[in-house]
Specification:
The protein is mainly beta and 167 residues long. It contains one helix and eight strands, in the order αββββββββ.
Length: 167
Amino acid sequence: MLLLAAAAALSCHPAGARAGDAAPPAASSGKTGLIVWADLGGGGQIGAGSAYQPANIFELELGFAYEVWGGLAPQMAFVLGMSPGTTFAIRPGLAWYLPDTPFYLRAAVDASTQVGYLDWRWLLLGGGFALRITDVFGFMVEGDSGFPLASGVGVPVLVRAGAVARF
């Protein structure tokens, strides 16, 4: 009985495998960790001052992230604002992709040219989900709110939807 248990344990151990046996699957799935997205959406700035009027927002966001460990991914997004007026914004941040789910959480800071020059606007906190259509491509929906970093900018309420690719 003891000999049978030792043989079973040895056959499960990689050192006990025969030379002709298939190698165990690699730890990596071939993915690099790069995430790229493009989304369109908007919302508003609740309580915005006169410098930030009208308070509605409509924007196109293009971004990338790189998953480094445990679902954590530093990210950078570039935003083309189309309402109110044409603006540009950058959003460096950090996302956490929850393992084995389509959900993620994110925190980012937003600097925008909404008042005519690049200035910090918000600390954004939010999350979303990405539904994969293939191993690489999918669709995503996310929402953000947060805290103003300058006087008069108001509290952001943003919702976006778009496409995402994970390489």
